[in-house]
Amino acid sequence: MIRYRNLLLFLVLATLWGSAFMAINAGLKLAGIPPVLFAAVRYDIAGVLMLAYAAIVLDDPIPRGRGQWALVAVGSLLLIAAYHALLFVGESDPSVTSAAAAVIVSLSPILTTVFARVFLPEERLTVVGIVGLLLGLVGVIVLSDPNPDRLLTGAVVAKLLIFAAAAAFALGSVLTRRIDAEMPIESMEAWSMLGGALVMHLVSAGLGESPVGVDWFSPVALGSLLYLSVGASAVGFLIYFDLLDRLGPIEINLVSYVAPISAALAGWAFLTETPSETTAYGFLLIFLGFLLVKRRAIREELSGLRERRRGAGSSDD
């Protein structure tokens, strides 16, 4: 029963996070919400919900000490603000489909491994690992389709912004592990969301974005915001950290490679988006890169899984 429960939650999470790219595109391109302001309002709502949840499940949801506030600062600036501001601006380009954005973001686990090697000098990427990294980068290049005649067109720049978003998230993930502090994940998520929303509001104002003229209560705008804030953010992160504890980082990383399928289906169903061949080729290259970079951890995970199954079988005898 536990196995089926984990599988069901995994598929729900992949669906929530994959279809979130469609919801972003809908809010940007159908409702006309300015991108950074859209991301900021999303996390206004999600942050309040997560803080309320943290207040219920924790005795003290307020960060204490320099270490915990450092975790919140990294989470606010990189995991929330930089990642989502760059992602939303990138997705605002008409050429970027939900599936293409999801495929580029799926590079995050590979970049996380690379940043971990940088900040842990005793660990080095092997030749095979470097090949895996290069395959992932080639996948992004294939997706960007950088014709020399239009190298600086909006389509290429938009996809490079999404790549930068994935890099910001990967760097933030590594730095939070480097900080010597313990903090309940519910509290860290809540305060990071609220801090990231504040940063994005400041960036939005600096860019001259205005909420005036946006019909915030139209079905598309309201539906996109609620889906992203409640479904993809609040519910999605709770499922993610539950599965992270049960499955470990290798298996949960595979969400990044199932999400593009959900993104493609949602984009096709709701926005009539048709994924291109380059999207499929880019996804394949990035996934192959992930397998090469993570090959040792995957091998250990599979070995441990076989041992657990043998142990469960012998106990049944």
Automatic annotation (TrEMBL):
The chain crosses the membrane at residues 32-57, 69-90, 96-118, 125-144, 156-176, 188-208, 220-240, 252-272, 278-293. It is a multi-pass membrane protein. SUPFAM superfamilies: Multidrug resistance efflux transporter EmrE. It is found in: Membrane. GO terms for cellular component: membrane. The keyword Transmembrane applies. It holds the Pfam family EamA. This is DMT family transporter.
